[in-house]
Fold this sequence. Notes:
Blueprint: E1 5-14, E2 17-26, E3 39-42, E4 47-54, E5 69-73, E6 82-86, H1 90-99, H2 111-114, E7 133-138, E8 146-147, E9 152-154, E10 164-166, H3 173-176, E11 180-183, E12 190-194, H4 199-205, E13 209-211, E14 222-229
Parallel strand pairs: 5-6, 11-12
Antiparallel strand pairs: 1-2, 3-4, 4-6, 4-14, 5-11, 7-8, 7-14, 9-13, 10-12
Amino acid sequence: MSRHRSRLAAILLVGGVITATVVFASSTTRDREHAPGALVVDRVHREVHLRATVHPGAMQRPFGVKGHHAIVWKKGRAATWALFRSEASDQEVRAALESLGAVPGENLTIASWTERGSGESKEPDKRVDGTAINVRVRWDGLSSPVELSSLLAERGHETPRLDFRYGGNERFQPEFKSGCIVCLYSCPGGAIGNRSHPIRDYVRDGVVYQAIRNRLPRAGSSVTMILKPQLEER
């Protein structure tokens, strides 16, 4: 897949100081279909900011892959079951993260998903590699962003096990077309996956994650997702 992207200059006010940032726009038609400002790279704090909407009940909707998708591009196939629907695409997020120095793990395969029911295949047991990514959320009325982990519950655990890594996986998107940006499992369909759970766990344990609805704003509310690669100080 071609990864050529155009880059549009933008300005972001950070901490009272105007700093130059970059808004990425994919060169493909499917990624140009969003409003300006859907994605901003804050180079001062080394963060990617995504404009999104929240859908507290989406991960539990019937007839789909439940408890699986945290953030998905609104035009992706998996958007219906995502807790947060992003205005920016998964391809744009990959470009933005890599512009900050995030390195994709690229260790998963298509078989990590397609052979999830096979007891002989080892692919569904793989855990996503790549740069660690901190995921936070901000919306009107909050004094500061909150950790995504504070908005999720995991069955059998007091706090959810979340170890997000930038897996990459762009080469698989012609097949998946999921638009998945942050997945709660080590899934080859998402740009960022959760190292704490391989796909095998999803098959064996069923749905373990759900949104804590009373901690979220009403459905359709606008939020900002903040993705911060955990990089060594330069």
